[in-house]
């Protein structure tokens, strides 16, 4: 196990973490402000990726595609909020889980109907391919490095949005007391739609960016959705800071576990068994992490409010 | 939109929109017994008829299908029965206990793997383990059932003990996380097939009974379902059931009355998991196959869908939900491969507009809703 491998895997973990943060920030905002648990968040991830793939294919410009993907995800998010989600705010969590589970079925099958079952092609533009040589002779793909950059930029932008702007002030006010800011004359249903669309746009961006790395297909949002839930539960539901920290933690633990656990078991087991045990344990690692954290802090690391 | 169909039927009835949480309260009327033959209760009426009709049709149609030689429909009925049994288990947690478990696929899957693994070792005569005690494989139905229920109960005891420290969304998410943990474990553990799943070459047997006969197997499953419903019904009529209901409605009051809510919930959670696990063992035997897909979060979601479609916290709700779900899957799935789109629309309609599910629609509300 060399230093190069370690640096590379840490970067991979951070990259996974930043993409998880894009998903998790929307989820945690929606829960913090509206008290809604939204399983359909993975669908916005998928919508963003499909719209980006379609527009990139027809215009040839990845940036145009990204813009279209974010816009499409935001629009679909706003539409879903207006049609379905706003009926759920005062319902028990069970109803929210089921209604948004129904939305997943509708979005997944609808997408399969429109685009077919085979994955769509989306690859990074030529100016983002290739490798960068980092200090210590680590060669790392430029595109992945760019993803980390985008994640950092979005985190800073979200920080400013939430702590320095009027919209952010309303979001924070909504998190601490929904009824009161309505009573103070803030148009709360408009605020809800905006927050939901913002979360959807971030999920769409994540979907588009990761879609270019992996593949654009139906159901691509689901594994990420579950990871994002782990992230926000670890971080404390409703807390953006918790989401950022949780995302990086999950990204790093998952990536490093998958690489180093099989190596670790190889030290005292025959190689064939070691890779099996290591892989099985690595796949469970973040869930074990979550269970341990919740066993000690039932409300996550940075619980915002109940 | 399609989702208006169930809605209009429900909204045409006078509904008093109580703003209370939508969990229907358990009725203590005799009509919810698992043997609905012996009621002389004034509440029998329409609800009793619907309940007898559901159970009766589920029993009679496969028997008829068998004698007309349509084995496919007998197996379909077994499938409905097993899924209904799994949902009866989940209903005990969600409907009666108010514990929204998003991870019951874990127990269904574990039950399935117990059946699969014991058949695997019984088939090639290798022991499951040799240390500290020697455990051989088994193809005896009773042994496998017992093992499945016990292991699921143990798993639920561990998961529940941690998860029940949390509430609300955290509980939903942590149960989901535990189920995912087991899913990924089964997926990447190569000994028993990994993601390819584990075929079962011999069906578990009972003395004197031919379990490979489709009708016999259906009757065994049917017996299991009736048993699960009877257990739920007895349980909810007992002092324990009263405590569980109060733990759901107002746990502070329960604690004030001198009963700690945590162990009550934990026991209900464990029983719920054992029932679902038993159903999982039956399901693996029916299909002759078990794979990680029964452990996936999608399956947990589907079980919840069935409970909700049928009507939360109603004894016959899971049965009604399972019938509708498997029918939609089979017949809509035969017409269009996008049947889940329509399932989504129906589900959305039920959640948004018909809070009390099919049983609420067919049989009227429970007395104290």
TrEMBL record, chain A:
**What does the UniProt entry say about where the protein is found?**
Cell inner membrane
| Signal sequence residues | none
On whether Aminoacyl-tRNA synthetase is a keyword of this UniProt record, the answer is no
One family name in Pfam for this protein: BPD_transp_2
Q: What is its main location?
A: membrane
The entry sums up its family as follows: Belongs to the binding-protein-dependent transport system permease family. LivHM subfamily.
Q: What is this protein called?
A: Branched-chain amino acid ABC transporter permease
Please tell me the species this chain comes from.
Halomonas casei
Output the lineage of the source organism.
Answer: Bacteria, Pseudomonadati, Pseudomonadota, Gammaproteobacteria, Oceanospirillales
């Amino acid at each position: 196990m060399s230093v190069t491998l370690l640096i590379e895997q840490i970067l991979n973990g951070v990259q996974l973490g930043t993409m998880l943060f894009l998903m998790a920030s929307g989820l945690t905002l929606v829960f913090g402000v509206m008290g809604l648990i939204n399983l359909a968040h993975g669908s916005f991830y998928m919508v963003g990726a499909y719209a980006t793939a379609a527009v990139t294919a027809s215009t040839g410009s990845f940036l145009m595609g990204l813009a279209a993907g974010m816009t499409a995800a935001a629009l679909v998010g706003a539409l879903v909020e207006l049609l379905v989600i706003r009926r759920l705010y005062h319902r028990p969590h069970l109803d929210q889980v089921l209604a948004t589970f129904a939305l997943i079925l509708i979005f997944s099958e609808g997408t399969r109907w429109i685009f077919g079952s085979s994955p769509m092609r989306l690859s990074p533009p030529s100016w983002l391919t290739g490798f960068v040589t980092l200090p210590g002779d680590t060669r790392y793909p430029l595109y992945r490095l760019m993803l980390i950059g985008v994640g950092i930029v979005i985190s800073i932008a979200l920080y400013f949005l939430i702590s320095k702007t009027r919209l952010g002030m309303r979001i924070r006010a909504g998190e601490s007391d929904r009824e009161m800011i309505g009573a103070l004359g803030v148009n709360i249903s408009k605020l809800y739609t905006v927050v939901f669309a913002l979360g959807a746009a971030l999920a769409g961006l994540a979907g588009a960016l990761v879609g270019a790395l992996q593949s654009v297909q139906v159901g691509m949002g689901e594994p990420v959705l579950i990871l994002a839930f782990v992230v926000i539960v670890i971080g404390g539901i409703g807390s953006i800071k918790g989401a950022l920290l949780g995302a990086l933690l999950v990204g790093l633990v998952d990536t490093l576990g998958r690489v180093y656990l099989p190596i670790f078991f190889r030290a005292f087991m025959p190689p064939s068994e070691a890779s099996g045990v290591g892989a099985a344990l690595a796949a469970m690692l973040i869930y074990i992490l979550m269970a341990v954290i919740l066993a000690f802090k039932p409300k996550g690391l940075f619980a915002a409010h109940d | 939109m399609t989702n208006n169909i169930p809605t209009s039927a429900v909204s045409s009835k006078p509904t008093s929109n109580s703003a209370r949480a939508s969990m229907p309260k358990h009725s203590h009327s005799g009509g919810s017994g698992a043997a609905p033959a012996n009621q002389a209760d004034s509440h029998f009426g329409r609800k009793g008829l619907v309940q007898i009709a559901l159970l009766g049709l589920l029993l009679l149609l496969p028997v008829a299908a068998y004698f007309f030689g349509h084995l496919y429909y007998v197996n379909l009925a077994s499938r409905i029965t097993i899924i209904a049994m799994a949902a009866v288990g989940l209903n005990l947690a969600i409907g009666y206990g108010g514990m929204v478990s998003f991870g019951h696929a874990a127990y269904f899957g574990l039950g399935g793997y117990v059946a699969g693994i014991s058949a695997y070792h019984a088939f090639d005569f290798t022991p499951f383990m040799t240390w500290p005690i020697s455990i051989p494989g088994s193809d005896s139905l009773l042994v496998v059932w017992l093992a499945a229920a016990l292991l699921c109960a143990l798993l639920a005891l561990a998961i529940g003990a941690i998860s029940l420290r949390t509430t609300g969304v955290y509980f939903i998410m942590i149960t989901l996380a535990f189920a995912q943990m087991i899913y990924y474990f089964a997926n990447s553990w190569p000994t028993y097939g990994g993601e390819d799943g584990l075929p079962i070459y011999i069906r578990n047997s009972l003395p004197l009974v031919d379990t490979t006969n489709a009708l016999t197997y259906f009757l065994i499953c049917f017996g299991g379902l009736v048993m699960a419903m009877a257990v739920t019904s007895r349980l909810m009529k007992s002092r324990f059931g009263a405590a569980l209901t109060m733990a759901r409605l107002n746990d502070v009051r329960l604690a004030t009355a001198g009963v700690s809510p945590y162990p009550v919930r934990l026991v209900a959670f464990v029983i719920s998991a054992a029932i679902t696990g038993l159903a999982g063992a039956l399901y693996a035997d029916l299909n002759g196959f078990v794979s990680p897909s029964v452990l996936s979060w999608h399956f947990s979601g589907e079980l919840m869908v069935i409970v909700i479609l049928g009507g939360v916290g109603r004894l016959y709700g899971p049965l009604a939900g399972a019938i509708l779900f498997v029918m939609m899957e089979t017949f809509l799935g035969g017409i269009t491969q996008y049947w889940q789109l329509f399932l989504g629309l129906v589900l959305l309609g039920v959640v948004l507009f018909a809070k009390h599910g099919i049983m609420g629609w067919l049989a009227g509300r429970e007395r104290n809703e």
